Amino acid sequence: MSSKITRAMIMAAGLGTRMRPLTNDIPKPMVKVAGKPLIDHVIDRLVGVGVTLIVVNVHYKGDILIEHLSKRTDVEIRISDERTDLLDSGGGIFKALHHFEGQPFFHANADTVWVEGASHALPAMVARWNEDKMDALMLLAATVNTVCYDGRGDFMMDAEGLLTRVPDGRISPFVWMSIEIVHPRLFDGAPSGKFSINPLWDVAIKKKRLYGMRLDGVWMHIDRPDAVLESEIYLGDLAPA
Fold first, then answer.
1. Kindly report the CA angle at 167 between 163 and 173, in degrees rounded to 5?
2. Among the four 40, 44, 87, 160, which has the fewest Cβ within 10 Å?
């Protein structure tokens, strides 16, 4: 049971501490990879799959980001202002939830960049989405198909796509790519103010309503200045001579 997803939220309110000195004067979403600000990589993907409304939360150097986003004419962008009160991942979405009017939406971080494989990720997610059985559907990358990622993975995924946390002492072959489809019911009973989305995912796991699907491509983990360079080298190697 899939339906078109036309709304999204991009999380752009981080402090960008690990990206310094690149973020000394600009917010992290404005850092360029392959000549394009990180946030535009994400917006272009979302617009390409039919998203017509994007909510962006802002905090650090928010004025710069707001000015940049005002130049986009291909999608409606609404600002969720957190410049005086940073709300974390869960609180930031909860504050903006009314924009989605009870409908499922994409939730993405402003720094997720990937190269498509044979099938395109976001249309595949929309086709896979089933709000009757899912509270969230995450896009996961195989850790062997990443650039600049050296972590232990984030979730275990069974043959049906159901996700669970990685048990102590284990390593997962999958890492969350910071993009998912979310139903607003994920936030039922959530607190107000500042909070992480992680406990809400744990509730969904207990209900067997947190699902994932694997990226058919390569994900770039851009979390530090060196990762920008490594990603650009990788993208340059893919470009035709």
1. 60
2. 160
